[in-house]
């Protein structure tokens, strides 16, 4: 098999065309209009929904805070903090347990 067509790959010689900067790329007008419309609607939806400061802090050591709707979805899928992977359910159960000592009598 003849591989001579690949001989120029990796050569240090460069032409003037290789050093020319590429023109900036812009999305087509229809795509740009769709994106602007999407972000406008997203901003409107955010302004109608919960205030931006509505956050829920999880009981993990770092007290990671999340948007309340986002953390509800994450905790419905898994009982672990999305960032540090600590079992949040066990922390809630241990915090709710009475601290009077063991329940078993000697």
TrEMBL record:
The annotated regions of Pro residues compositional bias extend over 21-30
Q: Where is this region: Disordered?
A: 1-34
Pinpoint the RING-type domain residues. 52-85
Superkingdom classification of source? Eukaryota
Question: What SUPFAM superfamilies does the annotation carry?
Answer: RING/U-box
Known Pfam families for this protein? zf-RING_2
Q: What is this protein called?
A: RING-type domain-containing protein
Source species of the chain: Emiliania huxleyi (strain CCMP1516)
- Gene3D superfamilies for this protein: Zinc/RING finger domain, C3HC4 (zinc finger)
